[in-house]
TrEMBL record:
PANTHER family: ARABINAN ENDO-1,5-ALPHA-L-ARABINOSIDASE, ARABINAN ENDO-1,5-ALPHA-L-ARABINOSIDASE A-RELATED. Pfam families: Dockerin_1. It comes from Pseudobacteroides cellulosolvens ATCC 35603 = DSM 2933. InterPro entries: CarboxyPept-like_regulatory (IPR008969), Dockerin_1_rpt (IPR002105), Dockerin_dom (IPR016134), Dockerin_dom_sf (IPR036439), EF_Hand_1_Ca_BS (IPR018247), GH43_arabinanases (IPR050727), Glyco_hydro_beta-prop_sf (IPR023296). GO terms for molecular function: hydrolase activity, hydrolyzing O-glycosyl compounds. This is Glycoside hydrolase family 43.
Length: 492
């Protein structure tokens, strides 16, 4: 029987490897209803426009207008003009929209305000207001929003100019009261249009180099997300010359990241680039992209099918099942003076349902050997290690769990409370290493074959081999192993 199972499993693995068929998505569902589409917010630079326009896509590449390309929202305050609209899904599941307060192309206008709206569904919009982000004689262009899990606040970044353009930030919890602005990113030369993405414990910032030598997109990164912590890591430009307003988003069904950029001299044309590594210095241009005419400086947010259907129809669609609001676990401060906390989220590298989340997300051990400290993830995949002494040389972090390839993270600098990863972008471990030798190979296939076709009350059932924790060791577990076959810890 073991030999028969072995042959069956081996056949599946060989088919998987040589046909490159994607059997299993590795993106983790974020709610009871997973994301199945995208909404792009943008504006048009033309008389009678300067409102919020929306278009949608189901693949992230081919976009169709909503409301025939007409604005779904106009500003009634300030200059009554909208440029550079940015849509952000908030921690409570709703949306916030921010935009530049500017009508037309009078670049010398210096507004101290940005537009703000909120929406539950991107169909109706409420609480229109102007938010004052500075009190000096400079503009406030291209506002965007990120969430800082350490500060438990949203960061509002925007481009401001004194002697040259820098990226500034204000922090807020409610988009009504904000902190005084401070410089967020300044590489020493003109930059505008910063876009922040957090992934696997690193914050990436993509921006337009505004110098005459390029006027194109570069990237910077940081392990802390703190102001002035970003270092430019792309020696060359990522996109073509004459691009601005980059926005980056992840494919809902793969590890691919897309970057769209506005060809600003062509008034309404975009180009698209892709990568599977946000830290890459070279992205691949995508040619099969279709974007409505006239699109300028946009942003993209992923939405569920229910949300997408409602936005297209212009009226809410009843949700078939209740969708729980995503929750985050608060990161308490260190308990000993002069020490800090290290926290974050860990997850398996395969998709799973909410029913098995508690079993799959919990139990990952996170160790700091040099400090003699460790923690284990809870049912949400969250961990926190307290009382870590300051280490500017960097700790080595080890993450492990039975049945997974262990992962080492080097040079983690601790000089403040640090969040290594986030709930929407956890550190992911590869499953299938049953014998703990940090390699997924034929030895693991043999171990799985011995328990194949068993259920939880069978004598040959082993919970550590039931990778998706559904109470049965079957082809679902084989497919998870096959996805990582012939990988080792060096593949992280």
């Amino acid at each position: 029987m073991i030999i028969k199972n072995f042959k069956k499993i081996l056949t599946v693995i060989m088919i998987f490897i040589y046909s490159s068929v994607v059997f299993l998505s590795i993106s983790q569902p974020v709610s009871a209803e997973s994301y199945s589409g995208y909404i792009m917010g943008y504006f048009k630079q033309a008389t009678g426009e300067y409102g919020l326009n929306l278009c949608y896509s189901t693949d992230g590449l081919n976009w169709k207008n909503i409301k025939d390309g007409k604005p779904i929202l106009y500003a009634t305050m300030g200059t009554k003009g909208i440029r550079d609209p940015y849509i952000r899904r908030k921690q409570d599941g709703g949306f916030v929209i921010v935009a530049t307060d500017m009508l037309g192309t009078t670049w010398s206008d210096h507004s101290q305000y940005i537009h703000v709206w909120e929406s539950d569904d991107l169909i109706t919009f409420k609480n229109e207001r102007l938010l004052k982000v500075h009190s000096t004689n400079m503009h406030a262009w291209a506002p965007e929003v990120f969430y800082d899990y350490n500060k438990k606040q949203y960061g509002i970044i925007w481009s401001g100019n004194t002697n040259y353009n820098r990226t500034y930030v204000n922090y807020t919890t409610d988009f009504n009261t904000i902190t005084p602005n401070e410089v967020f990113f300044d590489p020493g030369y003109d930059v505008i249009d910063s876009d922040v993405i957090q992934h696997n414990g690193t914050a990436y910032l993509f921006f337009k180099d505004e110098r005459s030598s390029g006027k194109s997109i570069k990237g910077a990164k940081s392990t802390t997300l703190n102001p002035n912590s970003f270092t430019v890591h792309t020696p060359n430009f990522i996109t073509s010359a004459g691009t601005e307003g980059p926005f980056v988003f992840k494919d809902n069904n793969s590890n691919t990241w897309y970057m769209y950029a506005d060809l600003f001299n062509q008034n309404g044309k975009f180009e698209c680039w892709k990568t599977t590594d946000l830290g890459s210095t070279s992205w691949t241009k995508v040619t099969n992209v279709s974007v409505p005419a006239g699109v300028r400086h946009g942003s993209v947010v992923s939405v569920t099918k229910t949300e997408l259907d409602g936005i297209i129809a212009g009226k809410p669609v009843a949700t078939p099942t209740s969708t729980p609001v995503p929750t985050t676990t608060a990161a308490p401060t260190a308990t000993l003076p002069g020490t800090y906390t290290l926290s974050g989220y860990v997850s398996p590298d395969f998709s799973y349902t909410g029913n098995s989340k508690q079993l799959l997300a919990s139990g990952f051990k996170v160790e700091v050997p040099e400090a003699g400290k460790s923690a284990v993830t809870d049912q949400n995949g969250y961990f926190i290690i307290k009382d870590l002494p300051k280490n500017t040389s960097g700790y080595s972090i080890k993450i492990s769990k039975e049945g997974y390839l262990s992962k080492d993270i080097k040079n983690v600098i601790i000089n403040s409370n640090t969040q290594l990863s986030f709930e929407n972008s956890p550190i992911k471990l590869m499953a299938g290493d049953f014998n703990g030798d940090n390699a997924i190979n034929m030895s693991d296939v043999i171990i799985l074959a011995k328990s194949f076709n068993s259920i939880s009350n069978d004598s040959k059932y082993a919970a550590g081999i039931d990778l998706n924790r559904d109470g049965s060791i079957n082809m679902s577990d084989v497919l998870i192993l096959a996805m990582n076959f012939n990988k080792t810890s060096l593949n992280y």
